[in-house]
């Protein structure tokens, strides 16, 4: 029991009175209390900005109004409902989101949709259909180039682009002569496909599928 100026307080009452005194001293005179403070408003710089973008996806033109922060991957999946392209790591490390943009393969999770105004984009849905499959899709089925199948759309898009790169004479880190046209070889294919990860480990089957398609196109 504490006694101040003739007032007797229990220890619990003393702690409560002391805490209330500290809180009152911390609020400047005339300051608004939580009940009377004006509602906070978001700064104008934090307000989402939308932009119009036109994309040619699998041969069809789409006009979209998107938050400028929308990735190409999310534009394809969430706005165009082309869910063949997969969101894996969302950091550009697994290759599951690979699509072909203006003839070059890219990780669609690492680029913004508004950066590709007017671009021609091919997803796995645009390569072939269940009734009319692309030769690479046929080869993946024939050689069992998948297990769970999650990475397969990205693997197939990347594989198609890899063969186009080799035909165009674009060298890789393992090309023996940078001035000569690279040849289709297991080493070239492995190097060029190294950005597409298959957690099931179907790499040898994927290599066989790509090699077969390369042979049929030569």
TrEMBL record:
One Gene Ontology term of the molecular function aspect: carboxylate reductase activity
Subcellular localization, as worded in the UniProt entry: Periplasm
EC number(s) per entry: 1.2.99.6
Enzyme class: oxidoreductase
Database matches in CDD domains: fer2
Major location (coarse): periplasm
InterPro entries in UniProt: 2Fe-2S-bd, 2Fe-2S-bd_dom_sf, 2Fe-2S_ferredoxin-like_sf, 2Fe-2S_ferredoxin-type, 2Fe2S_fd_BS, Aldehyde_Oxdr_Iron-Sulfur, Beta-grasp_dom_sf, TAT_signal
Cross-referenced SUPFAM superfamilies: 2Fe-2S ferredoxin-like (SSF54292), CO dehydrogenase ISP C-domain like (SSF47741)
Taxonomy, superkingdom: Bacteria
Keyword entries, A-Z: 2Fe-2S, Iron, Iron-sulfur, Metal-binding, Oxidoreductase, Periplasm, Signal
Pfam family, one: Fer2_2
GO cellular component, one term: periplasmic space
Transmembrane segment boundaries: none
Residue stretches making up the 2Fe-2S ferredoxin-type domain: 51-127
Catalytic activity: an aldehyde + A + H2O = a carboxylate + AH2 + H(+)
Subunit structure: Heterotrimer composed of PaoA, PaoB and PaoC.
Main function: Oxidizes aldehydes to the corresponding carboxylic acids with a preference for aromatic aldehydes. It might play a role in the detoxification of aldehydes to avoid cell damage.
NCBIfam families: PRK11433.1
Protein name per UniProt: Aldehyde oxidoreductase iron-sulfur-binding subunit PaoA
Taxonomic source organism: Cupriavidus agavae
Organism ancestry: Bacteria, Pseudomonadati, Pseudomonadota, Betaproteobacteria, Burkholderiales
């Amino acid at each position: 029991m504490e006694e101040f100026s003739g007032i007797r307080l229990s220890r619990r009452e003393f702690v409560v009175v002391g805490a209330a005194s500290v809180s009152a001293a911390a609020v400047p005179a005339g300051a608004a209390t939580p009940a009377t403070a004006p509602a906070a408003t978001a700064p104008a710089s934090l307000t989402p900005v939308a932009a119009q973008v036109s994309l040619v996806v699998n041969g069809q033109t789409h006009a979209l109004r998107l938050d400028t922060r929308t990735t190409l991957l999310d534009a394809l999946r969430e706005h165009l409902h082309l869910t063949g392209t997969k969101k894996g790591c969302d950091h550009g490390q697994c290759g599951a989101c690979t699509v072909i943009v203006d003839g070059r393969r890219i990780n669609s999770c690492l680029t913004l949709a508004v950066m590709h105004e007017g671009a021609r984009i091919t997803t796995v849905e645009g390569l072939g259909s269940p009734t009319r499959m692309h030769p690479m899709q046929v080869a993946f089925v024939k050689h069992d180039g998948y297990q769970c199948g999650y990475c397969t759309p990205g693997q197939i898009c990347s594989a198609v682009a890899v063969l186009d790169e080799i035909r165009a004479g674009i060298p890789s880190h393992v090309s023996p002569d940078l001035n000569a046209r690279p040849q289709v070889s297991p080493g070239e294919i492995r190097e060029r496909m190294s950005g597409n990860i298959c957690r099931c480990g179907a790499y040898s089957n994927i290599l066989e599928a790509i090699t077969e398609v390369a042979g049929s196109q030569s």
